[in-house]
Amino acid sequence: MSTLIFHNGLLNDISSILNDADDYDVIIRAGDYENIKEFRAHSVILRARCPYFKNELLDQQLPRKNNMIMFDKSNITPVVFEMILKYIYTGELDLSKHLGENILELLVASYELLLLEDLFTSVQEYLIEEQAPWVQENFVKVLHTVFKLKECEKLQDYCLKSICADPQPFITSKKFPSLNKEILYGLLKRDDFRVEEGIIWEYLIKWGIKQTPGLGGVNSDRTKWSNSNYQALKKTLSQFIPLIRFTEFSPAEYFDKIRPYKDIIPTNIYDEIEEYYFKDVQPKTINLTSRIKIIESNLIKSNQANIISSWIERKDVGDLTTKYKFDLLYRSSQDGLNINTFRTKCNSQGRCIVLVKHQQSTKIYGGYNPLGFYNYSGQWCTTAESFIFSFENSQNMKISRVNTSHTNYAIYEQNVNGFSFGNTLYLSSNLNVYFRHPGYYDNNINSVLSPYLNGNFVPVEIEIFKISAP
């Protein structure tokens, strides 16, 4: 004979006793101060449905009144405790009727009360999927809450990833200096925390001052600090200093931002920083991974790519890492210095950035081709947006834009050659890069192409990157 199933009726009957039955034996006081409410419950159901109550209700020392077990949960608000009882008695919970703050409190309460894993997991997922706007508006509150819960990795990771997707408003907010150190550490160790390193350093110092007794307030002026003040700040920031990507700073940023705080940086790290900026010696222990990986280049770093992006925009902007994506099309050191290979990989790919390294110089030369490369057998191409640039040691970046009177000579396409910015900067079929000044680019070209103007050389490296929206 088949087994008969009557689950619906059973659930309805058990659910009804939450509000209607008079045979309760537990009174639970939830909340504190003026926000207190008493709930009537049944010990047999509490023990069956909740591991926390199963253990606690075995305590014979619990206070009683008129044979009722008196239970106090002052750390859980009445609204949240009513949600918990609804779940325990009915196995149902409509979270859409509750505020994000109450749902977050429910997450904490379900963790504390050792409720079934499905509730804890479901509340996390609901906050992520249905309460995302509220979570994002209350990142600090949510982070400080969930980082105390070991099994809350999913919501922790969601918060950190969301911050990393648009970190600037978060790191510059008034709440940032009060951020918990474990959360800050979790952010700074991430490679996808896409903030310029100079800004990270600036706000890390502000965070450290806020967190260090004796600093901040009337003693926020570092020029008045004593050696003990610097040592106290050094202790506060000791675990964070190794997470800073010091090679991402420009020399000017090093001088203005890092050098004044030399005393808080471990000697071995500071020695490597100085060697890098003064002698161009690659550090051995400092983290060299760029956080803002908008370009995977052997020749330039992300901050230079960002400057090039700002030239494309024709305006000074702080961070274009979410607007432009740089995809490598061709690299001569891995693909071979070959015109056919260059054309096969780069033709019809859209707008591109060209980078060229001279074998006897630290300078990097390049150009922006907004039209892309095509298999023309000799044709001038018109654009007012192309430019040629150069820089040395990640600084002294110079630009020469196409002359407004000669935009029809901006790009020259000849399939037996490589790139050609108006026969001003071009890769010839003989695999030499040539520098000329026929007048098609503005007079700053003399400075950009110095000291090889009217010369040619075999490049040690060429990189071509396609530029697109991410």
TrEMBL record:
Residues 24-97 form the BTB domain. It comes from the Eukaryota. Coiled coil: none annotated. Residues 298-468 form the TLDc domain. InterPro entries: BACK, BTB-POZ/Galectin-3-binding, BTB/POZ_dom, SKP1/BTB/POZ_sf, TLDc_dom. This is BTB domain-containing protein.
